[in-house]
Amino acid sequence: EREKLDLMRATIVRLHSQLYKPEEVRWSEKVLQQHGKLIADELAQLNTPEQFLASLPQYLGEYQKDQTNQVALAHIRHSRRQLADYFVNLPAEQLETAYSGEAGKAHQMLLNSTIKYEATTDTEQSLIGQLETHLSQGIKTLKDVGYLLAASLYRRADSERCWLLTSSLSLPSCRSVIAKV
């Protein structure tokens, strides 16, 4: 019972990390890592692109009008994190279909927004580090493309740390998904 409560609290802290102290965020990440597979499966079921798109256009519009709007920025960051988690946790065989649908629309909305020019938070830096570590091993499988899509939400295409090297692509289906991006 206690374990379930800790898991629920850790999930809430992770989803709203900007509202919590750094030590609480670190605690939540530790708990979530310990229960990673179980949580990934549950998040994949609950974390759908329809959720990202429901309020994302509204908050992006508000943010475009007033880039000091911290409420809109927090919601955009939250949606971006949800989408990144969605791509990383999505089974590889569903990636191309997902990107062709609502997830791809949400991804493009975020890529075309000015959120990419905002400084990243400590929590986002942690995620970026995890994505970079995974991608530094190369893009060898379709699952790796999910990590690439997640990472692209946090890095501009002209970034010095751009991971997409054409020579590292070894699967035709990877090329297909990336061609759509």
Task: Describe it.
The chain has 181 residues and is mainly α. It has helices spanning 2-15, 22-34, 36-46, 49-65, 70-89, 95-100, 102-111, 122-135, 142-152, 172-180. Helix 5 (70-89) crosses helix 7. The longest helix has 20 residues, at 70-89. Residues 158-175 have low confidence and may be disordered.
In short:
With 181 residues, this protein is mainly alpha-helical. The chain has helices at residues 2-15, 22-34, 36-46, 49-65, 70-89, 95-100, 102-111, 122-135, 142-152, 172-180. The protein contains ten helices and no strands.
Itemize the secondary structure elements and their pairings:
Elements: H1 2-15, H2 22-34, H3 36-46, H4 49-65, H5 70-89, H6 95-100, H7 102-111, H8 122-135, H9 142-152, H10 172-180
